[in-house]
Structure formats: structure tokens, C-alpha cells
Amino acid sequence: MKDLKHLIFFEDLLQEANNKLVRQAKDDGKLALGYTCYFMPEVLLDLPGCFSVRLRAPRCTSPDIATYYLSARVCHYARSLMERALEGGYNFLDAQLATETCTATCRFQEHLQQKGLDSVEDMRIIDNDKFFCSFIDVPFKNNENGYEHYKTQLRAHVLDELSAHFGVDTSDAALLKAVEQHNEVCRLINEIGDYRKLDNPTITGYEFSVIVLVSMCCPKELILPYLRETAEEMKTRKPDAKKSYRCKVVVAGSENDDPDFIKLIESCGALVVCDRYCYGAVEARQPIVIEEGQDVLDAIARHYLKTSNCPRFMPQDEMRTRKQRLAELCRDYKADGIIVTSNKFCEYWSYERVIDTVIMRRDYGIPVCSIEKEYINSASGQLRTRFQAFVESIEIKQIQEGS
């Protein structure tokens, strides 16, 4: 296929958190607001005068200093973020809006927070006089009490904090403007992603991963023109005459913001057609629907709780719904199997990965490849062997079934 016009530019934007568009927005006087988790609604961080940055630590392979503060049994993702912060990679942030969800990332963000205690000298990891860190508590259930609690937390620890520290406009009109911008990003990403549903997709999983990540890591108003051009470009893009893949797969699991991991899978013959993982588009790029007469913040809070497929929700009905959702994604994207991954020491996804490995094969007849990996793919040779074997097993299954 012909190379996408902006792909190299997008790849360059992902080389560091403080990328070209982030610097441009900062030069324009915008506030950079960091976050790590889907449960921190990015739409609230994209209010007028602000822009959201979902934190990543690209190319971080040896978080030695961070390990001293977080221990070797904290996942590599959290330690990599901490390492990059200690290196000064997040000094451009004006605030970190944190969630008390994943314990590992919560600990990382606690270190960013200035303590202001006489008994403890602040580390001042973020060298920015304006910087502050605020936490919200996220409920474990999708019920009415959970929605009300979540909405209260978002008001008190996000909107009120932004207003108090920076004078940010948090009115309903400002929220509606942010939702409108968010929904346009979602529309464009979904329009591009729908080409993966074709019998012979006209976009690779790697390309789509890069596009989704830049939409999370760059100021929306600056990345939108490039997304619009890419969506228009996709309308006339032709597939390769001969398929370059041997099967299609859905990738599910924990934090994955490394497009090279998707490229590794695809180099083994499996085209990634759907991304049901943290930092993927399945959750993060669903438009927010506001019913007539509904409070804007209420709509936002309900949207993020209802659309989350996080294994943090442990009731049996929630777990069964997540398995059904994976099966539906396989059907909708014509996938032949699922690759389920978890980062080492990730408690929530370690359980979920084991359950998915059993249930998806037993109850839905879908082949599953189960992988525990590091945040950065240092063991690419071992992973390549696993993926090649999985592709071959799918081909054998198809031959046996006569397809």
C-alpha cells in the first residue's frame, strides 16, 4: 500500500512526550495536563486554554533509578514513567490529573505530588512552579451510587482544582465545546479504523496504532487537521494486490503504547485489526452522547464508567460482558484469533488474561495466544517465536475446518 502522507510525522511525534505540537501549544500559552488512565476523562482536560497528554515513556528500557523508589515488583510501565519524570521528560506539565485505580501508576503519581511537609523534603520531580497533582477516587461498580460518586470526584478534584489553580473556564458551555472537539476526534479515528473491517484491510494495525496514540498525546486542535487529511486520504487508498498477512487478530490487554509491539505481531503474519487494550481505540474513541436536558458532567461521568472494559470491575456480570465484547469484536473485525497480553506484575490484567485464555477458547471457540510481557519489548525474539507458532496454529485449525 502507498505510505500514508503523515505517518512519518506521526511517528516523530511519538518519540517523546514533549513533542513538536506540545511545544507549540505551550508556546501559545496553553496548559499541559497529564494523565495515565481512561478513568481520567481526557475531555475534561481539553477545556479552553488546556490540552491533555496521556503519558508515555517511549524507548525507556532500564528504569534503574525509578526501581529504587518503586521497587522491582512494580510493573515496568509505572517504573518507566517514573524514570522519564526523573530525567526531566515531563517538566512541561502544568498538572497531573491522577486516578486511584492502578496501584502502580498511583504510586508514580504520588511521587510527582509536592508534599509541603516540614518532615519530608520535596523531591520536586516536575521542575515547574505551577505544577500540582490531583487524585480522584474511581468506583468499582457501574451503579447509580457509583455514577454519583464519580461525578462528585470529577467536579471536586478536576474541574474545581483547574478553576482554582489556573482560572480555567469549567462552565457547561466550555464542557460542551470540549465534548464537541472530542467527538470529532472519535469520528475521524473510527472512520479510519473501519477500514480494518474490510476483507482486505487498507490500513495496518501498526499504522492505526500510531494514529490513535498521536490523538491521545498531542493537543487536539493541532492534531485534528492531520487526522482530517488522513481520513480523506484513506477513502482512495488501495489494498495490496496480494495479502501480506496470514490471519487477522484482535489484541487485548493492559497498557500498550508501543506501536513496535503491533509491528512485531504483524511481522509474524498476523494483521492486527482491533485494539482492545489500554491506549487502544475501542474504549477511548467512542463519542460522548448527551441526552436532551441531561447535565453535561453527568453525561461525561456515565460515559466513561459505562464504556470501560477495565478488569478493575470484578462482578461476575461485568466479567461475562467483557468476554462477550471480545467475541463480538472478533466477529465484527473478521478476526481469526485473540492475543491477550498483560504487563509483568500487572495485578488486574494478570487475572483477566488467564480467564480470557480459558473462556474465549472454551466458550466461544476462538484461538487465544496468552502473553506476559514487559512494557518495552526487550524479549522480541521470544515473542516472535510465540506469535509465529500462534499464526501456524490458526492456519492448521483453518485447514482442519476446511476453510
Walk me through the structure.
Strand 7 (337-343), helix 14 and strand 8 (368-373) form a beta-alpha-beta unit. The strands form two sheets. Strands 2-1-3-4 form a four-stranded parallel β-sheet, with helices on both faces. The chain has a four-stranded parallel β-sheet with strand order 6-5-7-8, sandwiched between helices. The protein has a domain at 20-171: Rossmann fold, CATH 3.40.50. 49% of the residues lie in helices and 12% in strands. It is α/β, with parallel strands linked by helices and 403 residues long. Helix 3 packs across helix 4 (76-86) and helix 8 packs antiparallel against helix 10. The mean pLDDT is 91. The protein has helices at residues 7-13, 20-27, 64-70, 76-86, 103-112, 144-166, 172-193, 205-217, 220-234, 259-267, 281-284, 296-307, 316-332, 347-364, 380-400, and strands at 31-35, 50-54, 95-99, 132-136, 247-253, 270-277, 337-343, 368-373. The chain contains 15 helices and eight strands. The longest helix has 23 residues, at 144-166.
Which helices and strands appear, and what pairs or packs with what?
Blueprint: H1 7-13, H2 20-27, E1 31-35, E2 50-54, H3 64-70, H4 76-86, E3 95-99, H5 103-112, E4 132-136, H6 144-166, H7 172-193, H8 205-217, H9 220-234, E5 247-253, H10 259-267, E6 270-277, H11 281-284, H12 296-307, H13 316-332, E7 337-343, H14 347-364, E8 368-373, H15 380-400
